[in-house]
Structure formats: structure tokens, C-alpha cells
């Protein structure tokens, strides 16, 4: 099978690999669409300690069942499925509580073993989610980032009728913006320094778009809220600057949620956190319940995905990743169709 293999920092090669074999409780999935996550880009740049080459990146994927193991009865060849890419141990307290995303021994496609930037993957049947009839495979590749966004918005507390700001207009930031709106947020702002992304964000109708290259996002938010700050803020970048923006943008007693992973360590104004009772919450991935809710949202609501997705072939992998790595790319969300 063809696969886009990360062979060294900033280097991808289209190679022929053996087709995966499946166990009795697994299915062979023919990949039809796979999205590029910011963490994939970090891996490509050599910044991810766990993404060790040679490795097939990619954990946002969907496709068609090609074959099933002898113990799989709920799926058959031809079924369209989105794949939950986290595999927990199944025995720890988190797995028993259906929080596989926190399993200490979890394994992730494209991180711990070959992922979705290939023609096929083998997946446990319990990680397969049936895609509704009429859902495109490009939409199916967005289930994973939307599940992330759902998990983030839930960590913000009740958002209905409230005001929030998202720092970072990349794919996750855009998904958080859209999900928060679906969950009833009254007013939403989004900030970034990439004008291409800000232009794309405008298609999701935020109430305020902040160009961080021209103005201080915190000052813009405080002016927008008459000095109060927002009820919640989301850092979808992970830099020290953006994390501090998220803390300084929220009102007294507000909540900021961090999902970005640009930097491991960062200084934060602890006095502002303590004296203003700001809650800082981390969020990692999503549960299977979040994954299912993402599919339901895609089925029942209209996400204008065509405005921010760029579809490409695996043979374009090196060029697309090089472009994304500049930080100035006009591509917001790259989706490969093996």
C-alpha cells in the first residue's frame, strides 16, 4: 500500500508498505480522508518526542471497511466509518469510566504506531463509528477535531448566553468557535496573527475578529466587553503569549481552557489567577461520547467545511507540510485523500 512516511525532521516520503494484517477483533479500513493536525506538523518539524521516524503520521481519519476479523459482527465490508484513534488499556480506572483519553497506557495512531496517512489501517472494532448516510469522507475526517472542540467547550462550563474568546484561528480554534455557537454562546471573538486564517474565521460569523499582528488581543477583548472580560477563553495555540492572553482576557471568576501544545513550559501571572479567581483547565483529546456527539453535530448542523479545508493527494505531502510549516500558509485545514 502507499503511505506517506515521516523519515526525518521536515522530510516525508511516499513509500510502499505492507498492508496491515488484522486480528480477530479488528477491521481493515481503507482510508478515504485524513486531516493534518497541528501535532502532526510538530512531528514533521521534529518537535515531538514520541513521533519517532520512520512513522506514518495522521490520527484524524475515516474510510470504508475492507475486511473484518472473525469476531467482528457489527461491521461489514463497505461500511463507512470514522475511527476513534485512541486505544486505551481497557483495564484502568479511566478506561472503566469511559475516559480512554486519560488512560496512562493509551496508544494513538500516528504517534505510537503508523497512522492514517496511508491507504489502509487496522483498527479495533470498538474504535469504529458508523458514518451517517450522506456524510462525505472529508466531513468524516473532521469528526476528530470536532470531538476535541466539544471536549474543550464542555470544560469551559455552561456557555449558553455567555461571551467567549478563542485565541488561535487554526482548525481547532475554528471548531471551538463553531461548537460554542452550536452550544448557545451569545457572543464570540477569535484572534490570530495569520490574516488568511482570520479571513477564513469570518465565514463562521464570529462577533469580533482580532488581528493580533495589529492590536493587542487582550486590549481588544477588554474594549469589546467594556473592561469586564469574557466569561471563558480558549488557548488553541499553546505559546506563552497566547496562554497569558487567555488568562488576562477573562473576567473575574472566568474560565480559561488550554488545548494548545506549542510550548511545554510558560510563565503565568499567578497573582492575576489567584486574586481574580481565574480557573485554568487543561484538556486532552476527547471521549468516545464526544466522538459520537461530533458525528451527530455534523449530521444535524451545517458546518461550512469547504471554506477552510484544502483537499490534496498523498503525493503532495511534502509540499503541503512545507507550506504549513511556514506559519504563513493560506491553508487552514489540509485533508489528504489516499
- CATH first level of the largest domain: Alpha Beta
How many distinct domains? 2
Give the second-level CATH assignment, the architecture of the largest domain. Alpha-Beta Complex
Which band does the percent of strand residues land in? 25-35%
- Kindly, what is the distance between the CA atoms of the first and last residues, rounded to a whole number of angstroms? 10 Å
Percent helix range: 25-40%
Low-confidence regions: none
Number of strands: 18
The number of distinct helices, counting runs of at least 4 residues, comes to: 11
- Helix and strand string, N-terminal first? EEEHEEEEHEEEHHEHEHEHEHEHEHEHE
- Major sheet: size, sense and barrel closure? 7 strands, mixed
Q: Return the CATH topology of the largest domain.
A: Quinone Oxidoreductase, Chain A, domain 1
Q: Structural class from helices and strands?
A: alpha/beta
The whole-angstrom Rg is 20 Å
The best one-word shape is globular
